[in-house]
Write a structure and sequence with these properties.
Elements: H1 16-19, H2 25-34, H3 54-62, H4 65-77, H5 79-83, H6 90-95, H7 104-120, H8 123-131, H9 137-148, H10 154-167, H11 171-178, H12 195-201, H13 206-218, H14 228-232, H15 245-261, H16 271-291, H17 295-312, H18 315-320
Helix pairs in contact: 10-15, 13-15, 15-16, 16-17
The structure holds zinc ion.
Amino acid sequence: MKIDHSFSPFTKINSKWIKDLKVRPETIRLLEENVDSTLFDISIKRIFSDTMPSQRRETIERINKWDFIRLKSFFKANENRIETKKQPTNWEKIFASHISDKGLISIIYKELSQLNNKTSNNPIKTWAGDMNRHFSKEDILMANRHMKRWSSSLIIREMQIKTTLRYHLTPVRMTKISKTNSNKCWRGCREKGTLIHCWWECKLAQPLWKTVWRFLKKLKIELPYDPAIPLLGIYPKSLKSAIPKVLCTQMFIAALFTIAKTWKQPKCPATDEWIKKMWYIYTMEYYSAAKQNKIIPFAITWMDLEGIMLSERSQREKDNLCMTPLI
Ligand SMILES: [Zn+2]
């Protein structure tokens, strides 16, 4: 994008360019009301030529004579610039509507931060492209809700923010940014480091996901082995039994966080780390539930998983982490 900080055909008649000519405000208003608002609309060919349409003559005659001379010479001098018909650039679309330079920096800042959002803040689209899949509007809505779903505890919020940030920092993307790094998976598996590879397909990440599904099976939760579920929170519509989505989401967030933590290390994200994270979430949720007198729904949600987590950890680790049953 080219920044052109002077006027264009799309600049408004009440902009500083015209005001600087010391044209009276009444004249500007007259033109706005009876002709139109951009320089292109009030150009020399349309207004200040001798062959102008008769209905406009009346307007012209009402313009103060000095203003008329000033405007006519301005349009004459800038004829080429104003008369050239072209598509407005992005900058013109944004800035031609602002009548002065007042607050321009904050306007630019706002526009730039929006541009930034548009390009980088749509992980779902990137995911869909990477997974070579199409998600329906409903699916995307579900995924967005999943991303924004904050739990009662701060720890989950923090994990979600950290993992969401990582969504954007894949080797493929970094190569595009810095143009020097290799676009291979940072775990060293020599595969191309796409979003779906780094979070799901990588042979170093797969063991953890297999473990997650093993836990789900123990909990008698039947879910297809599909990356869209843990990564985007898109659950298939046709499920045999009701799925405790809250619990699943906590397990998936803990797994994503475990993967994010070893993002650049040539090793598998460890099951122990994952259980440790889940146990942490579990304790936080417990205190939060206790405070709100919601122990029973909490117990219903976590009871089975508590037992599985305890049985999967060695006694020494349980002592280290103070993993004592809460329910
Ligand atoms: Zn890999």
